Structure formats: C-alpha cells, structure tokens
Amino acid sequence: MSNRTFTMIKPDATSKGYTGAILDEIIQAGYSIKALKWTKLSKELASEFYSVHKERGFFGELVDYMSSGPIIAAILEKENAVTDFRKLIGATNPANAEEGTIRKKYAASVAENAIHGSDSDENAIIEGDFFFSKLERF
Ligand code: CMP
C-alpha cells in the first residue's frame, strides 16, 4: 500500500474556475501536496502521457482535450493514497459518480471529467516522474 498518488486538474475544470475549489477538497480530504505545477501539455506530451490508450477510439479526442488549456499536476501524500483518491474523485464517467465526489460536482462528461487520479501505485510513480524532477518534489 503506497502513500502517494498523482493527480491532474484537467483543462475543463481549470477553464471553468474550479481549480481552487478542487485543490481545497483535496487538502480537506487529508492529502499533503508534495509537488505542484501549473502547466499546459503540448499534443506530443499529452500523446506520450496517455500512450497506454493509443489504440482506443477516443485517443485523438483525449489528446486534443488534454492539450487544449492549462492543467494542474500534483503529487499527493496520504495513507492509502491511490485507493482513497479514486473514491474522492468518483467514477470516470461523472454520470456514474457518487454524490459528493469531485467528478459528480465538477465534471462535464466522460471525456471532460475534471480530474485524473492514478489507478495503481506503480502508475502513480510513473506519472509523477513524467511531470516532476527531483528538485520539484519533496
Ligand atoms: P482518466 O481516467 O483520468 O484517464 C483516461 C482518460 O480518457 C479518462 O480520464 C477520460 O478523460 C478519457 N476517456 C475515458 N473514456 C472515454 C471515452 N469513452 N470517451 C472519451 N474520453 C474518454
């Protein structure tokens, strides 16, 4: 059981002004921020980050969307971080997300779903390493 996960607040949420509210929910849920970045992905970097999905029908749409505006990337720490964070954000499709979850409150659709959370301890490390150097985290 790892105590770290990786998240992105996605372009739909940053463009609608939800960044502060979502970060506050994360902090109120007990996560400590170990790295934080306000950035914008190029199409090349979005393709690389999501390469595991490259055979999926929605890959082009996903890359266009994730490079369409600024994002927040962060490494978060809390006991049982990966599993608890997936509960906090809710189902990938906000239509299926439980009441009170971040996606239920802030996500528009399965494609524009406001926030990302790593699906395993291994991917949390890979995804955090994608965005942050050793100097940018503690
Ligand atoms: P996430 O689970 O963070 O990472 C993969 C992303 O692909 C997912 O969020 C959605 O943004 C996107 N995605 C998943 N399923 C679909 C779909 N059916 N149509 C469009 N985008 C999708």
Describe the overall structure.
Helices cover 40% and strands 17% of the residues. Helix 3 packs across helix 4. The longest helix has 11 residues. Bound molecules: adenosine-3',5'-cyclic-monophosphate (CMP). The site of adenosine-3',5'-cyclic-monophosphate (CMP) has 8 residues, from helix 4.
CATH superfamily: Nucleoside diphosphate kinase-like domain
Q: Look at the structure and give the CATH class.
A: Alpha Beta
User: Main beta sheet: strand number and arrangement?
Assistant: 4 strands, antiparallel
Roughly what fraction of the amino acids lie in strands?
15-25%
Estimate the helix proportion, in percent.
25-40%
Mean pLDDT, all residues: 97
Number of domains in the coordinates? Answer: 1
Radius of gyration: 14 Å
Structural class: alpha+beta
Ligand kinds: adenosine-3',5'-cyclic-monophosphate
- Measure the end-to-end span: 19 Å
Point out poorly predicted stretches: none
CATH topology: Alpha-Beta Plaits
Counted by DSSP, the helix tally is 7
Keywords:
Alpha-Beta Plaits, 138 residues, globular, alpha+beta, 4-stranded antiparallel beta sheet, 4 strands
In short:
By secondary structure, this protein is of the alpha+beta class.
Q: Topology of this structure?
A:
Elements: E1 4-9, H1 11-15, H2 19-28, E2 32-39, H3 43-49, H4 59-66, E3 71-77, H5 81-89, H6 102-106, E4 115-117, H7 121-131
Antiparallel strand pairs: 1-3, 1-4, 2-3
Helix pairs in contact: 3-4
The protein binds adenosine-3',5'-cyclic-monophosphate (CMP).
